[in-house]
Design goal:
Its EC number is 3.1.11.6. Helices cover about 85% and strands about 0% of the residues. The protein is built from 4 helices and no strands. It has a single domain (about 15-79), classed as Helix Hairpins, CATH 1.10.287.
Length: about 80
């Protein structure tokens, strides 16, 4: 396994603790900084890795919301 890929896929506890809105807002900021340019290659890579972690956190929140909605629909259909 590629160690660099493993590092990018590990979500730090501080990101795991973020609400969806916090993770989304920081992700928007990271993307904006990357699009603006001017960062060194090393800083750009660090921003990209952080963005990947934030995007994974947002996807996790959205998947949880989908599961809750599906469960609520199934419950309502069963009544």
């Amino acid at each position: 396994m590629n160690p660099a890929a493993n590092e990018a896929s590990t979500i730090p506890a501080e990101i795991e603790a973020m609400s969806y809105e916090q993770a989304r807002d920081e992700l928007v900021s990271v993307v904006s900084r990357l699009e603006t340019g001017g960062a060194s290659l090393e800083e750009s890579l660090a921003l990209w890795e952080r963005g990947e972690q934030l995007a994974t956190r947002c996807e996790s929140w959205l998947e949880g919301a989908r599961r809750r909605l599906d469960a609520a629909r199934e419950s309502a259909a069963g009544e």
